[in-house]
Amino acid sequence: MHYILAFALLTTAVLAGIPPQYYSFSPPVGSGSGQPYTITGEGRITAIRVWEANSNYIQGLQVCYNGIWSPTVGYAYNGAKELQLFDNEVIVQVSGKYSHYVQWLVFVTNRGRSLFAGQPSGLSFNMYPSHEQAELRFISGRLHGALTSIGAHWAVFTSNSTGDH
């Protein structure tokens, strides 16, 4: 009887046109010392800022969701490197290098544009979604003065989500 009920609910959900949830997580890389952080917001990511310490490791990170900037994670010291996304442009890859700190970050968009920050030294990493239509939704990791780890959370942004651009 339970199987019939489960089948009926599943069939109803499929026929109702409920879109499947495509979510994946790229686990954090780096030493992971310090305090945890998470950068989230409402809607799509529309810009990103990265601060580097003397062209070396990544000391600060900030994400803009539909024109609203998140609080800065780490330190906003000197000028930031910034990437403003175009309409329907999304981040589809996060790459870089790490040792104790995250040394180098590369954010790549579906239009082939990139933001590079830091110094390319240490162990390499490459993060991307498991579903081809997914995009970067939020970032998490750990912080000890500067970023000691970074992880990426990916999901498909549906048209009924808030803040579509």
In short:
This protein is mainly beta and 165 residues long.
Question: How would you explain this protein's 3D organization?
Answer:
This protein has 165 residues and is mainly beta. The protein has one helix and 13 strands; from the N terminus they run H-E-E-E-E-E-E-E-E-E-E-E-E-E. Strands 3, 4, 5, 6 and 7 form a five-stranded antiparallel beta sheet that branches. It has a four-stranded antiparallel beta sheet with strand order 1-13-12-2, with no helix packed on it. The N and C termini lie far apart (45 Å). The N terminus is likely disordered.
Q: What are the SSEs and their pairings?
A:
Layout: H1 2-15, E1 23-30, E2 35-39, E3 45-52, E4 58-65, E5 68-69, E6 73-74, E7 81-84, E8 91-98, E9 102-109, E10 114-118, E11 123-127, E12 135-144, E13 146-155
Antiparallel strand pairs: 1-13, 2-12, 3-4, 3-7, 4-5, 4-6, 8-9, 8-11, 9-10, 12-13
Give the termini separation.
45 Å
Radius of gyration: 18 Å
- The coarse overall form would be globular
Instruction: Count up the helices.
Output: 1
Structural class: mainly beta
User: Can you write the helix and strand succession as a string?
Assistant: HEEEEEEEEEEEEE
Uncertain spans = 1-15
Overall mean pLDDT score?
A: 88
Strand content: over 45%
Describe the main β-sheet briefly: 5 strands, antiparallel
Helix coverage percent: under 10%
Give the beta-strand count: 13
